[in-house]
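Final report, Chapter 2: Outcomes

The project's central promise was a pipeline that accepts a single protein chain and returns its three-dimensional structure in a standardized token representation, suitable for archiving and comparison. That pipeline is now operational. To close this chapter, we reproduce one record exactly as it appears in the project archive, with the input sequence first and the structure output second.
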Amino acid sequence: MNGCGLLNPFDCGKLPLAAWVSDALRWTVENYRPFFQTVKTPFDTVLQSLTHFMTAAPPTLVIVVIASLAWQLAGWRLAASISAILVSVGFIGVWPETMITLAIVLTALVFSLSIGLPLGILSTRSELLYKMLRPILDGMQTIPAFVYLVPVVMLFGIGNVPGVIVTVIFAVAPVIRLTYLGIRQVPEEVNEAMRAFGATDRQLLWKAQLPLALPTIMAGVNQTLMMSLSMVVVASMIAVGGLGQMVLRGIGRLDVGLASIGGLGIVALAIILDRMTQALAQPRRRPGEIWARGPAAALRYAMRTFRASSSRPPAAEAE
């Protein structure tokens, strides 16, 4: 048996890292659990609002709203395709679960953008901040998703809200990285020209950098949505409802049909969210082009017609 020495340095002893992590988490739970329960409040508020709308509204109304948004963003062909997908989801019997999953994913997106966009913008202003964030982001994107579940359960409990929190932790990294990358890729000539005309840092950000970086930022949003959907099944292990719970039940019962329709619902959501975010990332030839078509254009036309008819003088009465 080889002993401790230069050729076998690892036999000399090991760092008790696992015990340190467990002790640190246990100490955090004992001393700061009320704080983490308070952190749940904004997540719970947004999630409950979206879930109530998605599940309480008639399916036809939800389909019309989503299809109208798709029509506004990319045209009637995408609206028709998304309508067909949503109708198919309803007819295979997973509409309630799909709406719960959509509410969870959209809530995770709201908080991922609230965290990721400011951090990405601040990182372009401070290279030190980005150097500090980079190893954290590397770890967040490479650590297996199952590892997040244990500390989240101990700090926040189980249910849909902890599922949103673990999804945000898992999916926020692409928004930060691609916001930083998009703003960094703005040509320096544009920045110098804006400053030469007296633009402030805020004007430079809102008038030049963010519009030019929008396709890259939207690619980050797209990746965040896809990662959120990939987390749906994993998060179902901590009692998160929706399509992931259906897939988990199907796996546990070896019910291929149940797992299949849950998986089809996830695929349908992935297609819808992917196409809509890609439409937002398309370059526009002129400002406001997105509002020059679709329901917004039809509504403006109807309002102009109504005003014109109401302002027309009444015809003279026949004597």
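Archive annotation: The mean pLDDT is 86.
This record, like all others produced under the grant, will remain available to the consortium after the project formally closes.
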